Amino acid sequence: MNYNREDSLNFLLTKVIKLRRKKLHTLLSEIDMHPGQHAILYLLWEEDGQTQKALCTKVMIKPSSTTVVLQRMEKNGLVTREMDLEDKRISRVYLTDKGKAIKPMVDQTLKTMEEKCYKDFNEKDLEAFKSFLKRIEKNLEDE
């Protein structure tokens, strides 16, 4: 089998990710959010008061990038950062009332994004696609 760049998994995934990121950026900007903020918000909606380091690890971005995202979120009134009471070297991130209240808008934005991505998929196709992606993920994690 010859290698065809445009049919390669790497090329197709990269292209889809870039297109998705561009569309998501547009949708998030409509609710005055920047890329990356929604991922941190979802983690905090699940468990408020996580450490900055834990958030950085879970969203898989560099500590410096996490700091920039959190600074922007603080400026927009979505989160506050406070020193841990037991260890002053640790910074904990908490949702503000505004950060809690924005959840329905973020949910709707991401639902719109999902619907756009999967509009021509039936349930069987979607389940197969997710299964394939999970298998690829497992293959890459096993190495």
Automatic annotation (TrEMBL):
Gene3D superfamilies: Winged helix-like DNA-binding domain superfamily/Winged helix DNA-binding domain. SMART domains: HTH_MARR. PROSITE patterns: HTH_MARR_2. Residues 6-138 form the HTH marR-type domain. The keyword Transcription applies. It comes from the Bacteria. The keyword Heme does not apply. It holds the Pfam family MarR. Keywords: DNA-binding, Transcription, Transcription regulation. This is DNA-binding MarR family transcriptional regulator. PANTHER family: TRANSCRIPTIONAL REGULATOR, MARR, TRANSCRIPTIONAL REPRESSOR OF EMRAB OPERON. It comes from Natranaerovirga hydrolytica. GO terms for molecular function: DNA binding; DNA-binding transcription factor activity. InterPro entries: HTH_MarR-typ, WH-like_DNA-bd_sf, WH_DNA-bd_sf.
